[in-house]
Amino acid sequence: xxxxxxxxxxxxxxxxxxxxxxxxxxxGWMLHRSSRPPGGTVAQxxxxxxxxxxxxxxxxxxxxxxxLGPMAVLSVSARLLxxxxxxxxxxxxxxxxxxxAAGPDFNWHVLWEFVKPQLLALVCAVVxxxxxxxxxxxxxxxxxxxxxVVARYLREHTGNYVQEIRGPALKLLTLYGVxxxxxxxxxxxxxxxxxxxxxxxxxxxxxxLLRQDVAFFDANKTGQLVNRLTxxxxxxxxxxxxxxxxxxxSLTQTVGCFVSLYLISPKLTGLTVVVLPCLVGAGAxxxxxxxxxxxxxxxxxxxxxxxxxxxxxxxxxxKAFAMEERELQLYSAEVQKSCDLNENLGTGIAVFQGLSNVxxxxxxxxxxxxxxxLISSNxxxxxxxxxxxxxSQTVQRSLASISILFGQVVRGISSGARVFEYLxxxxxxxxxxxxxxxxxxxxxxxxxxxxxxxxxxxxxxEVLKRFSLTLPPGKTVAIVGESGGGKSTVTSLxxxxxxxxxxVIMLDGLDxxxxxxxxxxxxVIGFINQEPVLFASSVMxxxxxxxxxxxxxxxxxxxxxxxxxxxxxxxxxxYHTVVxxxxxxxxxxxxxxxxxxxxxxxxxxxxxxxxxxSALDAxxxxxxxxxxxxxxxxxxVLIIAHRLSTIQGADLICVxxxxxxxxxxxxxxxxxxxxxYSDLIRRQxxxxxS
Length: 690
Ligand SMILES: Nc1ncnc2c1ncn2[C@@H]1O[C@H](COP(=O)(O)OP(=O)(O)OP(=O)(O)O)[C@@H](O)[C@H]1O
Prior knowledge:
- The protein is an alpha/beta fold.
- It has 24 helices and ten strands.
- Residues 125-411 form the ABC transmembrane type-1 domain.
């Protein structure tokens, strides 16, 4: 400081390299290098003041340049963020089918719901942040006082220098210390709020996805959904934390120092108001464009992820067909598109920052003269200039952070919108929500009454047409028919994966739509299909999936019933054997028996077997069939069968063709009819499948 003032007095700083470099750089440069020591610009301002006082016609608008530039950027940034948050009207309204060309709306109300539980911490953080900002108002003013004391000492050379500056210097040090504490406090608090909000969001999104009905998953790719859970929340979390910590700090510092600037020179500060509307308008246009680009880029990333997800998830099929190269090409093409979009986004953000610089430089030209006039008319003292400069330096530093934050915030808001979209999505078939649980024990009678149905993804294609069928209690009913005739669809409707377009399904005389879905799926219906999917955990955990509260003994009992106990105990780790992803370390027959045990452990009244043995070889089929015969005793059973030999003992066989029941009866009755069923039997015998 002493050195600076000496230099000022001697005028040597006018020739310093700092001064020269400040003259030759734009405000944009200053924004991004605002960490430079303020001394150079202090000297520059001082020199300007001296020149103005001597009525030199040299540039005098640097003061305004320091002030107006950052102020304008602040306004533009703030406005852009608001615009980003609101999102345009051209967003895709089809919330079930996100499309790369547009995105969902950012819902502030949803964000508020996540922030609300953290409100106390947030309020404390905001209070601390504002405390720090208020102190920021004083720092430049006190610095100005200190400069005035030092300047006076240098001019008059009276008294003890240390004693002269001790008071203001100690005040300043205390202020710095308190401000540091407040800043640390609010950053810690805000960072915690951010982490907790993101964690809550992740849990809620996962729960919301799990709540969706099957039709939702028909329409959305798993890879894209997983991307929302991972990449989008990650992006949103980063933005949230940055905005609430760095952004809020920068904003409060800017506001605090802006007040300082106003206190120092209302005239200089007031001039900014004139230029704001133009910058705000331009910023809004660019912001809207960048937001759309950001959405496209993020959607494209999730498309690429879903390609990789599909290839890796079906890696055996990919390898069996030697399609690695093709999958790589597909993935590379999607990644390249995403890369191009992100490059464009980066360019857009760079253009935005570049344009800000150009705009600010233009403003500087206009303000040089106004600033010079103020200085030459002695409306500002040297101390004021010092204070003004320090305040404007802080504003610059803060605005530099805000301008860097801008790109992140645009991405964060897009990600947030994509996450929120699924949070508020209500499934048409609800898992919970007031459904009945009959108090009497079920007989297990099921009536399909005049069911018509089209899949939501193919509304024009009617799969079932006025389909009616009764499953008598404790009896076995088989549905057979040509491929694509709608057999599996019947089981999906019974499980309420979908609701019929028209008609009713009754369970013990009760419309299943009125029943508690968790109870229906969890306790009433046991489902075993052709390709059972196991989870990558132990055999024990996989069987227990059917009844989480089951004891080890219950698990083993179910495994015995399913003919699985023998092979499980032959493994070195027994029931603790980990089965690999989707159960890849088990054979088809073993997987099927674990799946049967998983279904049996809940002791369901109704058992649905959708081609449960059709993928097995003869020996596996025999063991599995034995388990199934045991499992079906005393239950209402619906069998979807390809191999007609497995259903000849069924109490009723129903032949489905083109969504309609065309024949029904026992095996012998249908054979004697000589209709479609006997045709199917004949064809299977001819092909050696029966
Ligand atoms: N999730 C779905 N979305 C749209 N259409 C579907 C869906 N699942 C099946 N379909 C269509 O519904 C029709 C009936 O399919 P379903 O699986 O019920 O037939 P299936 O009789 O069980 O056939 P298969 O014996 O070959 O298994 C088919 O035309 C099929 O393409």
